[in-house]
Write a structure and sequence with these properties.
alpha/beta, Enolase-like, domain 1, 3 domains, 7-stranded mixed sheet, binds flavin-adenine dinucleotide, binds nicotinamide-adenine-dinucleotide, oxidoreductase
């Protein structure tokens, strides 16, 4: 059989792999990309895309309830919503594949394995390349207790055809809070179980407390310092036995963090080193084998397993592999969001970090609730904290809690990254009144 030769092979058709493949092909490299499951990977099929479609419906429901002053609020029609969501997901997955093809990238559908550091097999075919990038992503953490086969993962919730009436969520991290907000607003009974006392580690305690209180008022039950011991299935119901309680539910979903997809790649055949956390890479995203690289959730890079990082790394690598001189990857300031209701978002130095180094940073806390954008949305708890470097008096971080916290944080991230002075901001001409023009009053 003839061997297909490429400049670059990318293993994994998620957002990380897509970034590398498209960028490298734009420089004229001959590129192949291999995907074993769905084009677009986790983000498109089981992550932020379906999540944000469901969230839009949940937010519309909440806004109807608070803003329309009607006696009754219509129920969310989950089946129709699910069909609409699946349509968007499927269209997006197809767009990923056709975009590769229209950029001259050869697409393969199947499981890729390394034969050596220049060769990969897929569907019995051998492909060879000068450089190979692993962008194989991650899978939900495996659980080992009696009845763990009854557990479903967050991706199943975001792609569910029907809304279960009773839901238990294991974990109180970013994904769990999005799930809880949507399920609660759509009418499910939700219990959240967290094995220790800390929800949304890394986010401002005060804002996390506001979010938990809000969800509690809406009927979500929280159990902290509680772990699942066993699950039994009896008469179409699940009995979840924990250290502290026994809960009867329809479904139990997990959002406990994710583990790199490394088994099955035969990395040792290519001489690529890895640990249980993922593929080890240096600041050039290069593995222990000099012509093999890794990006996104499968790589140990010291940044969170999030799509914005996978995309950024993919674009960096596609660029650096196409140039004679490569520079180490340099991350801009961290920017993340929790898509709960209301949302939480942070950029740059966090409030927690600022409190730990109070000699260096000052935290300026403000309510946003009296601003028109928040008032008209009944966003009564909307708040912002700016982190200011005491010496330079510049804003180096921000954390926000509101229904539009991610937008505000992105505007602030632009101002921070671009080092925009108050004067320059006031010279900018923007549509009024909007979240962007609120910045005139916020920026210091
Ligand atoms: C429920 C959920 C919600 C999320 N929400 C957000 C969010 O709002 N914002 C955000 O920034 N991040 C979010 N994330 C994280 C984000 O989805 C991931 O960080 C991102 O998908 C990582 O991209 P990736 O390309 O590294 O991996 P993936 O998207 O997982 O893609 C890897 C691809 O490689 C394929 N593959 C693996 N092994 C092989 C092989 N041997 N051969 C061929 N193909 C292979 C897989 O099938 C997969 O399609 C969320 C994650 C989840 C689970
Ligand atoms: N600020 C950020 O950028 C940020 C924050 C959190 C997570 N992330 C990334 O997003 C990825 C996926 O998010 P996620 O929500 O699945 O993970 P997560 O890490 O945000 O949350 C998992 C939560 O589950 C808890 N937990 C772990 N084992 C448990 C158990 N047996 N029972 C109950 N609770 C348990 C953890 O303490 C944690 O609070 C993470 O892998 C991480 O890399 C990024």
């Amino acid at each position: 059989m003839s061997m297909s030769k490429f400049d670059l092979i990318v293993i994994g058709g998620g957002v990380g792999g897509a970034g590398v493949a498209i960028k490298a092909s734009s420089y004229g490299q001959k590129v192949a990309i291999i995907e074993q499951r769905d084009w677009g990977g986790t983000t498109v099929n089981r992550g932020s895309t379906p999540k944000k479609v469901l969230l839009a419906a949940a937010e519309a429901h909440r806004h109807f309830e608070t803003q329309v002053f009607s006696e009754t609020t219509p129920d969310i029609n989950w089946e129709k919503l699910a069909a609409y969501r699946d349509n968007i997901v499927n269209q997006t997955a197809v767009k990923f594949k056709t975009r590769f093809q229209s950029n001259g990238i050869t697409t393969y559908e199947g499981h890729a394995e390394f034969l050596n550091n220049h060769e990969v097999t897929v569907n019995g075919q051998t492909l060879s390349a000068t450089n190979i990038v692993t962008a194989s992503g991650a899978h939900p953490k495996e659980l080992r207790f009696s009845g763990s086969q009854f557990v479903q993962h967050s991706g199943s919730f975001f792609r569910s055809e029907q809304l279960p009436s009773k839901i238990v969520i294991m974990g109180a991290g970013i994904i769990a809070f999005a799930m809880a907000s949507i399920a609660n607003e759509a009418g499910a009974e939700v219990v959240m179980l967290q094995h220790d006392a800390v929800a949304l580690r890394g986010y401002d305690h005060e804002f996390v407390g506001l979010l938990i209180d809000d969800l509690k008022q809406r009927g979500v039950r929280f159990q902290f310092n509680n772990e699942v011991k066993e699950i039994k299935s009896v008469d179409n119901c699940l009995h979840v036995l924990t250290q502290q309680s026994s809960i009867t539910t329809d479904v139990i979903y997990t959002a406990l963090g994710r583990e790199a997809n490394i088994s099955g790649l035969h990395l040792e055949q290519a001489g690529v080193k890895y640990t249980k956390h993922g593929i080890s890479v240096n600041d050039y995203l290069q593995t222990s084998q000099s012509n093999i690289y890794a990006v996104g959730d499968c790589a140990v890079t010291g940044v969170p397993q999030l799509a914005n990082y996978a995309i950024y790394q993919g674009k960096y690598l596609g660029d650096s592999l196409s140039k004679t001189l490569a520079f180490p990857i340099k991350y801009q300031l961290p920017v993340t969001a929790v898509f709960s209701m209301p949302r939480l978002a942070q950029a740059g130095v966090t409030v927690q970090q600022a409190n730990e180094q109070s000699d260096k940073y000052q935290v300026k806390s403000m309510s946003l609730a009296h601003w028109l954008n928040y008032q008209r949305n009944h966003d009564e708890q909307a708040r912002l904290k700016l982190i200011i470097n005491r010496q330079s008096q510049q804003v180096v971080g921000a954390e926000a809690y509101s229904y539009s916290a991610d937008d505000l944080i992105n505007y602030l991230a632009i101002l921070i990254q671009q080092n925009i002075s108050v004067k320059r901001l006031h010279d900018l001409f923007l549509a009024y009144p909007s979240t962007a023009t609120d910045l005139y009053g916020i920026w210091v």
